[in-house]
Amino acid sequence: MWSVPYYCRDKWFDQLPSQVSVMWWIKTGEYPTIQQALNKIELINQLGPSPQAFNFKHYFDWNGLSNEN
Predict the structure, then answer these.
(1) Given its phi and psi angles, is residue 29 left (phi above 0), alpha (psi -120 to 50 degrees) or beta?
(2) What residue numbers bound the domain in which 34 lies?
(3) What is the CA radius of gyration of the chain?
(4) What is the pLDDT of residue 67?
(5) What is this structure's pTM?
(6) Taking the mean position of all CA atoms in its chain, how far away is CA 35?
(7) How many domains is the chain partitioned into structurally?
(8) pLDDT tens track of the chain, all 69 residues?
(9) Is 19 left (phi over 0), alpha (psi -120 to 50) or beta?
(10) Which of 4, 33, 48, 62 is deepest in the core (most CB within 10 A)?
(11) In sequence order, which residues have a C-beta less than 8 Å from that of residue 55 and are 6 or more positions away?
(12) How many CA atoms lie within 13 A of 40 on its CB side?
């Protein structure tokens, strides 16, 4: 049943022009700010995934090693 929405998603949803979510490592006890998130989204949109800003598909561990290594 889930396969119909999955395979029709390109017809039902517009492609977003840029990355709209981002992840990055922070130290224990730190709280990210909205401005940091906006800066990280800008970074990933300009350079692609990197140890400073990444996504679920292309992530980096705490040491900066990619899941594609």
Answers:
(1) left
(2) 1-69
(3) 15
(4) 86
(5) 0.73
(6) 16
(7) 1
(8) 556 666 777 777 777 778 789 999 999 999 999 999 999 999 999 999 999 999 999 999 999 999 876
(9) beta
(10) 48
(11) 19, 21, 22, 23, 44, 49
(12) 20
| pLDDT attached to residue 3 | 66
The DSSP result for 16-65, as a single string, is PSS----B----TT----HHHHHHHHHHHHHH-SBTTBB-SSS-B-TTS-
What single letter denotes the amino acid at residue 14? D
Which DSSP category does 12 fall into?
Answer: H
Give the tokens for residue 64: 């900066």
Show the tokens assigned to 13: 């949803």
Q: What letter would DSSP give residue 66?
A: B
Tokens 């300009």 belong to residue: 46
Q: Which residues of 26-48 are buried (b: 16+ CB within 10 A; e: fewer)?
A: eeeeeeeeeeeeeebbebbeeee
The answer to whether 60 and 67 have CB atoms below 8 angstroms apart is: yes
